[in-house]
Each structure stands twice: as structure tokens, then as C-alpha cells.
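User: My advisor, Dr. K., asked me to get a structural model of this assembly before our group meeting. I'm new to this, so sorry if the format is off. These are the inputs:
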Amino acid sequence: MFALVDVNSFYASCETVFRPDLRGLPVVVLSNNDGCVIARSAEAKKLDIKMGVPYFQMKDLIRKHRVQVFSSNYALYADMSNRVMTTLEEMAPAVEIYSIDEAFMNVSGVSNCMSLERFGRDVRDRVQRETHLTVGVGIAQTKTLAKLANHAAKKWSKTGGVLDLSNIDRQRKLMSMVPVEDVWGVGRRISKKLNLMGIETALHLAECSTWVMRKHFNVVLERTVRELRGEPCLELEEFSPTKQQIVCSRSFSSRITEYEQMRQAICAYAERAAEKLRGERQYCRQIAVFLRTSPHVANEVFYGNQAMGKLLTPSNDTRDIIRVAIEALDRIWIAGHRYMKAGVMLGDFYSQGVAQLNLFDEFRPQPNSAALMHVIDGVNQSGKGKLWFAGQGIDKPWAMKRQMLSPAYTTRYSDLPVVK
DNA sequence: TCTGGGGTCCTAGGACCC
DNA sequence: TCTGGGGTCCTAGGACCC
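Assistant: The format is fine. Below is the predicted structure of the whole assembly, which you can bring to the meeting.
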């Protein structure tokens, strides 16, 4: 038996926890660069503010309804997420942290001592008490059904935010009311195709032949069908598998046209990516760089490209990663474009670094690499200051825009933006 | 003027091997 | 008349998730 717990309007709720004066007002949180809406409070949803709408398109609406707008403050959200997850881990033998605001819990043994619904309410009350955040809880025999239950718990207020969907008749009744596109794992493309085949509700999908689904689509959808019927195909993954890829990319605050600025940005992304790689205790051999202009501008030619470089010896030394990234950048940089976004991707990971020196490797592993990286990461995590490579530059005019950032209520001073 | 960032899994097809 | 069989690895692209 699985429970899926997720926080209602997570980012927006994190902002209001520390601002009780905002309760009852519509609140939205914007993506990086204050680009578009990525979270809305219940009141903002009522105003029909859609997910993903560009901020500049809704300024009138915001003024009219006194919508409270925040830049995203990931340091705050990550900290609040940790608090929620810690509480959940104290309440179940196994928890899978599925995303920043969601977790699956193993609740198989619970029904021996209390009803599943009672347990769901306990989870909700305790998280509320300890973090001032409200969660929804869905419970069922498979992850896909638990997701569905959670979805319904939020949609129908009479559930009080908790729904035990372990009863087969209740499952069928709910599935007959849920459109197929609301099923976990069914996105826009597949739901369109399913609709054309006459499959419109979750129940229709659950009653499809697995063989036909596999033939017309793929095994992923076949598993979804089985899960909807109560046959578990997905397990609880308590320990996150090691990452296979690390990406660090940002849109720029304004378009980049100068090579020097692009080099600084790539250098900064490479540094951040290398830091994440060391956080995973991994070493990489592949370093790729991509850049692109805006796809939205009508009278400009779109340019997007990417290039990959390889290290012969796996490394997590920022200096190696910057060097290969800049070499890759130089292969795809074309002057004259107005670049909107760029990024650095790391791949081909190894759990050990210098396994074997290659005789023909022209770049030797850097001496004392591990010690130097340890010092850099130590300083940067201490909250006392930041160390960075000179290649990033000092002014960083390309750095992202966050004009409505809330204070770092729970985290350190150094997470605040520097105001000059 | 202005539109996010970071991941995963699966499949098909080509290169290459014996 | 008439061109083997079976396998692995890699990459690109498509779909999905939050």
C-alpha cells in the first residue's frame, strides 16, 4: 500500500508561511528571470491565472486584483522541503522523496493498527503543525492509483485533503469521473491519441487490453494500465539512484551578444555543474555546452547548437570542466546573434576518478585536485563567503533577474542577493 | 522589451563485431 | 538462380514528470 503526500501550492505556500498578512490574497511565484508563473495560491487559481503564463502578459490583472508576486527563492523552498520530508520519514518505515514537494510512503503495515484514512489525517495534521504547510494525501495499492487518489483529495474539498482509495468499487467510481489526461504518465500527446481511439476516462484506460496498449504505444503505458487495475509495476525507490546527467543552464537577464560575456556565463555554469558533480561524489568524462537565441522573436533567425568534449580520465575538478566547456563553446559560438540561453551538461559518470592514466592524455590530472576542490566547496558551503574562478567575471551583467525575491527566512545570509 | 530549469525512461537505427 | 544470423554499443529523438 502506498501513500502519496504532496504540499498544496508548494512555492506559493512557502512564501505565505512567513507572511501571515498575505493569507487570503492571491499569490504567485515566478520562474527564474521573473519569466512566467510557476506556482499559484488557491486564490490565484480562482482568478484563472494559468501555469506558465508570461509575467509581462498579466501585469494588468496583477494590479487589478492585488496579486502578490515573488521571484523564486529556491534556497527557501529546499529548506522547507527538507522539514516536510523529515516529518514524513518519522511516520513511515520507508519514504521515497519523489520531488521537492512530493513523497511516496510505504504504508503497508498501517492497517494493522489504524485505518488508512486515520493515518492520512495524522500525516496531514502533523505536517501542518510542524511546518505550517498543508498537504494532500492519497492512498492506494499502486503508485499510479495513489497519485489519482491524491488528485481527487485536492479536487473535492469534502475529502478534507485525504482519500483512502484502497476499495475497488471506489477506484472504479473515481476513475469513471477522471479524464484520461489526468492520469500520471499520460501527457498531452498520448491523451490526444487515446481520445481519438475513444478512450476518454481513466476507467476506459484501465479496461484497455495491455497488449493493444503496448502495440500502439509502449511498455510505459502498458504499466500504467496495469497499475490502474491495482497490479503494482512500480516499486518504492527509497534510495535515489546515482544521477546519469547534470545540467546547469539559465536564461540571461538580457540578450548576450559579446563573446566575453558568454564565456563568463559558461564558466559560471561549468563551475556550478562541477560543484553538483562533487556533491554526488562522481567524476565525469563528457562535458557538453549548448546555446540558443530566442525562439519567440519573429524577425530574427533562430540559432541553437551544442558541442560535446570528452576527458580521457574522469574528473570532477572545476578547472578540467571549465577548460573542456570553453573549447566546446568556441566550436559553436557564432558572433552576431542575440543569445537568450546557454548551459553546460555533464555525462558519462564514474564513481572513481583517476582510475588509470592514459599514456597519450595530454592533460595530466591536476595535482592536489581533491584537496583544492574540498577547500573551495568548504568555503562556499560555510555561509561566510564565496570563492569562484576568475573566468566568471565580477560584474555578471548576464546573471538572472530576481526583482521580487523574498528574504532568506530560514537560510543563511549568503543566500541573499548582493545589492550594489 | 518580456516566455524556467532539471531530470528520467524507452525505442529505433546505425556502426561494428564474430 | 538469387545475398546468414545474432549480438552489443551508442546516439538521437520522443514522451513523460515536477
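One thing worth pointing out at the meeting: Residues 8-76 of chain A form a domain with the MutS, DNA mismatch repair protein, domain I fold (CATH 3.40.1170.60).

User: Perfect, thanks a lot.
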